[in-house]
Design brief:
Rossmann fold, six-stranded mixed β-sheet, four-stranded antiparallel β-sheet, 9 helices, about 25% strand, binds adenosine-5'-diphosphate
């Protein structure tokens, strides 16, 4: 059976206008994303990666073309799209449970059942002892996990991740990307992740989209097929024999000169 199409990006383009200049940030972007796919987006700095996520999130309007999420035209932020950014944006004065419940509270969906579900998720993702702690008592990696649970509890059809691990040190980054990649697959989520880290993109994604220099166009899409023992997780992916090959290919496509 064909998988359901979650995102449909059609002939997308955007030009920013400022008083001094026009900047064409994206041109002719066409991409379909299917249920339970994780898409990694890489590209040179300034090529329009964040712009692309902001358009899909409904935060800015494209100049040309359209984005649909589950068939619905994105012309404003949609309730069924969740975000996770570089900074976890937890509220320091709210305990962990109340941080997780924030989105539900805003959407008017907070009830006892939702509270129980939040506690269960915190338990099952290793935060059971920190339900009533405050953000400052948690490590950077734990805080990112809380941010993810806060997003997942809203049961979004699509998750947008903008450099979600770049504020973390290398070891934490490896561990948390492994955990979060595994959680996204277990919860059968569809996600688009922007990263400047090629290894992270390969290890977590089903497909990696390489954008060209600005104006960002899709240069190439890599279908990531790795032979892992048993199930594929981000950390095991890094040990797959094909990993290095994808790394070299993507590096070449990025065409970065220093
Ligand atoms: P990336 O995430 O790949 O680094 P961005 O999407 O942030 O790239 O930016 C793409 C281009 O658009 C850059 O040249 C940037 O300067 C420009 N840009 C981004 N946001 C704005 C804005 N609000 N107004 C004008 N230009 C912008």
């Amino acid at each position: 059976m064909d998988k359901a199409k979650v995102v449909e990006i059609k002939d997308l383009g955007i030009t920013y206008h400022t008083i001094e200049e026009e900047t064409e940030a994206l041109r002719d972007v066409n991409l379909d994303i299917y249920h339970n796919e994780i898409i990694g987006v890489v590209g040179p700095s300034g090529c329009g990666k964040s712009t692309l996520l902001s358009i899909i999130a409904g935060l800015i309007k494209p100049t040309k073309g359209s984005v649909r999420v589950n068939g619905r035209l994105v012309d404003k932020p949609l309730n069924n799209v969740g975000y996770m950014f570089q900074s976890d944006q937890l509220f320091e004065w709210r305990n962990i449970l109340n941080n997780v419940l924030l989105g539900l509270e805003i959407q008017g969906k907070l009830d006892d059942e939702a509270k129980e579900r939040a506690k269960e998720m915190l338990h099952s993702y290793g935060l059971g002892d920190f339900i009533y702690s405050y953000p400052y008592q948690l490590s950077g990696g734990m805080r990112q996990r809380v941010a993810l649970i806060r997003t997942l509890i809203l049961e979004p059809d699509l998750l947008l991740l903008d450099e979600p691990f770049s504020a973390l040190d290398y070891q934490t980054r490896l561990a948390i990307s492994d955990e979060i990649g595994t959680i996204l697959k277990k919860e059968e989520k569809t996600a688009i992740m922007v990263t400047h880290d090629i290894s992270e993109a390969i290890s977590m994604s089903d497909r990696v989209v390489v954008l060209s220099q600005r104006p960002g166009t899709i240069k190439k899409i890599f279908d990531i097929k790795l032979s892992c023992n048993k199930e594929r997780t981000p950390l095991k992916s890094r040990e797959a024999p094909e990993f290095r090959h994808y790394f070299n290919e993507i590096w070449r496509e990025l065409d970065i000169h220093v």
